[in-house]
Give the backbone structure.
Amino acid sequence: MDKKALGRKLKKYREKSKLTQAKLAEKIGKGKNYISDIERGIKTPSLDVFVALASTLNASTDYLLKESLHFEISEPKRRYYTDKQLSALDKMHEIYVENFEK
């Protein structure tokens, strides 16, 4: 997880909500320094704290995490087979059934 990217998003939403770090910390029951550490990417909030932050800032959790995660969800690659390949797959399936399902 890119903690700095998450921290930047949280800071952006905090400022958009016109909250100081101290006020946000008070609303979620944490200290100002903890909020500062999260925003600077030094600490990662626990799941409970992350949800509390998102809720307090009226931000969607998926949007907050979107750029901080190190993977992409992509469409599966589609495969197209020729008639010859499909025929070979059918034969392989028949052999499997004959030999392994007895």
Notes: The longest helix spans residues 83-100.
